[in-house]
Design a protein that fits this description.
This protein is of the alpha+beta class and 325 residues long. Helix content is 24%, strand content 36%. The relative contact order is 0.21. Bound molecules: flavin-adenine dinucleotide and P-hydroxybenzoic acid. The site of P-hydroxybenzoic acid (PHB) has 11 residues, from strand 14. It comes from Dictyobacter kobayashii.
Length: 325
């Protein structure tokens, strides 16, 4: 049996792009359904971004999503650039007319968005399978998928492909009109989560002959750090002791700064890639966030770009007279 549903905007993906879009549309009175192929627990525990830019922070506050971020997030007014054994502070606050960055992990943002959307009575269907789009050039595009062992046909006025870099939505734009630009970088980042107190009050970006290193944080108890490595390397080649030793070597200073160490609770190697597709709209299908463009994690930018995309998309859908509920 097939279950038939209808919504104004069918949103594929419960990452930052999809969740912010559903919440922004709700503020405009536009109804949406989010479908996500992973479980709620998995979505809310994937470790990714850590840095929120001022625009994202302001939007979360305006949307009434800022309460926990305000309590648990940490505002940084500057960053340190470290080279030749010396640190050089860049005062972001002074250089950007009082702006700052907020350290509040992506999975916490996701948890807040899911809770807020469900509290509003919004629908987020987790663990969907076999997602297929059709009729995207028409004014009644369709998303078909399996949910709870049932076939579902979700008729939409618009579809938002917020399904990340590996999603399916992008494939519905005919190859003949797609232009993609991509670049794979010849270096990767070995990223770890370290159970230890923070080693610094702000992020440290270190340049060293042995390669780049970054000291970031996730909470007062968990620190996030990266070291530049060969993107083809296998994480199995890196013992915890080697990683710590490499961090200490790359971060060394003349004033005997000490890295605070502890158990490594997660480690992986990330490849670095830039990618963008145009157009981001085809008929009644819109792409947003990583589905349309990715930048390497070096810039701490992707989540913020995803949020900026859907901010424009929500406004455009509201102004274009997307039927309201
Ligand atoms: P995603 O977060 O990828 O969400 C897409 C969702 O769609 C996923 O939940 C996925 O399961 C779901 N999906 C996929 N296919 C389907 C399908 N067929 N059907 C249904 N659902 C589907 N950005 C920053 O701004 N600041 C940072 O500090 C930062 N640090 C980073 C550090 C690392 C290590 C990495 C890897 C990334 C970092 N980023 C950072 C980038 C940021 O995490 C991404 O840009 C952001 O997650 C993009 O959001 P999105 O919603 O577009 O896509
Ligand atoms: C992170 O904490 O994951 C992070 C911080 C700063 C960056 C990139 C990633 O530039």
């Amino acid at each position: 049996m097939t279950m038939h549903m209808h919504t104004r905007v069918g949103i594929i993906g419960a990452g930052p792009a999809g969740l912010f879009l559903s919440l922004l549309l709700a503020l405009e009175g536009i109804d949406s359904i989010v479908i996500e192929n992973r479980s709620r627990a998995e979505v809310a525990s994937t470790i990714r971004a850590g840095v929120l830019e001022q625009g994202t922070v302001d939007l979360m506050r305006e949307m009434g999503l800022g309460e926990r971020m305000q309590r648990e997030g940490v505002v940084h007014h500057g960053i340190e650039l470290r080279f030749d054994g010396r640190g050089h502070r860049i005062n972001l606050h002074e250089l950007t007319n009082g702006r700052a960055i907020m350290i509040y992990p992506q999975h916490e943002v996701i948890k807040d968005c899911i809770a807020a959307r469900l509290k509003q009575g919004g629908q987020i269907l987790f663990e969907v399978q076999e997602v297929q789009l059709s009729g995207v050039a028409s004014d009644q595009p369709l998303i078909q998928f399996m949910h709870d062992h049932e076939q579902v046909e979700l008729q939409c006025d618009f579809i938002a492909g917020c399904d990340g870099f590996h999603g399916v939505a992008r494939g519905s734009i005919p190859a003949s009109i797609q232009h993609t630009y991509s670049r794979a970088y010849p270096f990767g980042w070995l990223g770890i989560l370290l159970q230890a107190p923070p080693s610094a009050q702000e992020l440290i970006y270190a340049y060293h002959q042995r390669g780049f290193a970054l000291v970031s944080t996730r909470s007062p108890e968990i620190q996030r750090m990266y070291i530049q490595c060969d993107p083809q390397d296998d994480i199995a080649n890196w013992s915890d002791a080697m990683i710590i030793e490499e961090l200490q070597a790359r971060l060394v200073t003349h004033d005997n700064w000490q890295l605070r160490v502890g158990p490594i609770i997660q480690k992986s190697i990330l490849a670095m890639r830039s990618f963008v597709i145009e157009p981001m709209q085809y008929g009644h299908l819109f792409l947003a966030g990583d589905a349309a463009h990715i930048v390497p994690p070096t810039g701490a930018k992707g989540l913020n770009l995803a949020v900026a995309d859907v901010r424009h998309l929500a406004r455009a859908l509201a102004q274009s007279g997307a039927p309201t509920s």
